[in-house]
Design goal:
2 copies of one chain form a homodimer. Chain A is mainly α. The first copy, chain A, has a single domain, classed as Farnesyl Diphosphate Synthase, CATH 1.10.600. Chain A is built from 15 helices and 2 strands. A two-stranded antiparallel ribbon of chain A has the order 1-2. The interface between A and B is large, with 49 and 48 residues.
């Protein structure tokens, strides 16, 4: 399997589906649709939607019915970045080398663009075709859980409240599990659900997602201090500067690397029941866990 | 029918259902759940949820299956107030005589509390029991449309962009239809859908809702300049001070009053097909349109 080709083929499908799902830039009122599209098409890797498609493929070899959910999780991810970048949150001026939404459209419009992407995510995911085991109510509940006050938002809150304070390893894990791993896990679960996964299959993929999601964030933390800005393609040492607690800062670099390896091994083990069918997810996991930027 | 008793009985049901639907104040992370509850239980009249219940009753005399949708529209309404009050939007310090969310919890937390209420609205509405004609996908789509970039958010955007500029009657209608009437209309539609309304019944109630929603806002505009702060129980003349375009400021008071009467008559006419069954909605419309605060 050619991984690059696998990725870029699905990336194109996601781009096209997102483009179709969002109102055009000229739809009135055009400012909000321009703002939604500005952040949604800012050159993201489409990691979450692609793992949604890959999870669907692991179950039944197809990903057509996972496209809506794939778009929905990308909308949730993008909304969370827009709100996260606001002056009252992380106060970031740049995202992927481009000015952040509030820098371009103003703070009020950035709040609304995030709100609108969050709202449309539910409309999009609800259009997923029901399977024998799951329906719109299940898909919506999954997105609401991942994005809600016990998931993504819980992570943001704990992050916001922890700034400048000493963080224990347990608190850090709490933040990362919610801020990063929850949506990655649901991205995988939604793909599997749209392919009518059995309860057992869903449990295995959930286990895979939780470990992959956490490992992804630990590695992100590690790269922030071990790589140069040039290698990362974004400012290195950002966490240190913002006095954010990270795995290396709380556990030390050695222990953080060991933790990443442990989580990676657990993620990999969870794919065992799928045998050769799990190849796409395995390659994605390899790619994420061995990346240098 | 004793209207006061009718209202207060349903209000109690809505309070109880909202209380059950929201995580408790002590659920971790507690700050976000305290913030969600602070605004949701700030003494609102529960207008939107009660018209959801009333619309359900008009169709089949019952409102049990409309309770989830009723809670969802109140969560949407409350989220929109929290974000609307932010310094980067209307910058209001007080709401119903109490400090606004960002004044109590800080701006970052207020953004997140709004996000969390918006998110949970979809989880709640998706739990509505499907009827022969409608299912979770329909309910979610309805909420997403009312709250999204073509509904509520479109109204906010046009409002934000219109500040300090001269507004035409058509632009003002555009704003009010989206900022106020869209969610009121969907509140009614959701109640009707949860009671398995026919297409024709839904069309009549949609017509009712659009006219009621618009009339409600025109009257709000009129009261802002004709009543004292004491009569209103909130600062009178707020729109004038904020240089907001309103029906009286754009059309003049006389024409605004005529427009309110015209819309009211149209709303009333749309209820004709329901005969005596429409009594609750008629009384609610009377109450809203003849109110003095």
């Amino acid at each position: 399997m050619d991984f690059k080709q696998y990725w870029s083929a699905r990336q194109k499908k996601v781009e096209a589906a997102l483009n179709k799902a969002l109102p055009s830039s000229s739809t009135k009122p055009s400012t909000i649709h321009k703002a939604m599209r500005y952040s949604l098409f800012a050159g993201g890797k489409r990691l979450r939607p692609i793992i949604t498609l890959a999870a669907a493929e692991v179950i039944n070899g197809k990903y057509d019915n996972a496209l809506a959910a794939a778009c929905a999780v990308e909308c949730i991810h993008t909304y969370s970045l827009i709100h996260d970048d606001l002056p009252c949150m992380d106060n970031d001026d740049l995202r992927r080398g481009k000015p952040t939404s509030h820098k371009v459209f103003g703070e009020g419009m950035a709040v609304l663009a995030g709100d609108a992407l969050l709202t449309i995510a539910f409309e999009i995911v609800a259009a997923t075709r029901p399977t024998a085991r799951y329906n719109a109510a299940d898909y919506v509940k999954e997105v609401a859980y991942a994005g809600g006050s016990l998931g993504l938002i819980a992570g943001q809150v704990a992050d916001l409240e922890g700034e400048g304070k000493k963080t224990t390893p347990a608190q850090l894990r709490y933040i990362h599990e919610r801020k990063t791993a929850a949506l990655i896990t649901s991205s995988i679960r939604l793909g599997a659900m749209s392919s009518n996964a059995t309860e057992k299959q869903l449990a295995s993929l959930t286990e895979f997602g939780q470990n992959l999601g956490l490992a992804f964030q630990v590695i992100d933390d590690i790269l922030d201090i071990t790589q140069t800005s040039e290698q990362l393609g974004k400012s290195a040492g950002k966490d240190l500067k913002a006095q954010k607690s990270t795995y290396p800062s709380v556990l030390g670099l050695k222990k953080a690397e060991a933790e990443a390896a442990r989580l990676t091994a657990r993620a990999s083990a969870a794919l065992k029941p799928f045998g050769k069918n799990a190849e796409p997810l395995e390659l994605i996991a390899d790619f994420l866990l061995n990346r240098k930027n």
